[in-house]
Amino acid sequence: MSINLHWMEVLNEQALWTSDKDSINWLASLLGREPVNSPQVIEDFQTGLNKIRRQVTSLHFHEPFDFTSLDAELRNIRLELVDPAMPPDGYGSFLPLLHARLHGNNDDSFLIALKETLIVQFAHFVAESLNNSESPGVARCEGLYREGNSTHLSPAQSLPTDIELKWRKEIAVLTDSGLESSPEILRCADYFPTRAKGRFCSDECRFRTFQLTKQLSDPGYLAAKQKRYRARQVRQKD
Ligand SMILES: [Zn+2]
Fold this sequence. Notes:
- 50% of the residues lie in helices and 8% in strands.
- The chain has helices at residues 7-14, 20-31, 39-60, 67-74, 107-131, 161-168, 172-176, 203-217, 221-237; strands at residues 79-81, 98-100, 138-140, 144-146, 185-187, 191-193.
- Strands 1-2 form a two-stranded antiparallel sheet. A two-stranded antiparallel sheet has the order 3-6. A two-stranded antiparallel sheet has the order 4-5.
- Helix 1 (7-14) packs across helix 3 (39-60), helix 3 (39-60) packs parallel to helix 5 and helix 4 crosses helix 5.
- The chain starts with 6 loop residues before the first helix and ends with a helix.
- The model has no long low-confidence stretch (mean pLDDT 91).
């Protein structure tokens, strides 16, 4: 069996991690056991994802794209294509069929190969997206949610505030309510390929955002809703 991990999916997972422990837990769920990785390799994996996240921002906002840096990362990656009729065992079974070759048979080599595989996938996406107007770009969910104790403006904690602000400026209710720079309300960090319809990652995210937007646009909204709810309860009792 091979796993169809995709760079967007891994970035969306990463946005949920608040410590190295979370990334290790994610790896454990992938491998089905506790991984044995050196802190340096885990940090390098996170750095690789962070770079992709920043490049996604450039791509989305049509800023000059740093091809040189992405190309430099590709220079030392050697690829391997696996025949699905002869699925690999061991580490290969946790990687897509087209993946970076492992340099050794241990968890560090696996994590390095996973990072390199995601870089190759992303480079392919960038090339398609910039070279063909029919190809999808990358969109970010327009969902909002309250985060009481957040000190970071972005759910993906590595993303600098100035970059996150660009994404938040896309959401009118955040700018209109003066909450653009407040970590009290966060923008959902999920990415997906651009599509004609659907601005949210899920129905749940859409519904929660609708409620929150109503509240932010009209402070009396929640009070009025509670009043309506109570009135209905009274009517049902009568
Ligand atoms: Zn969302």
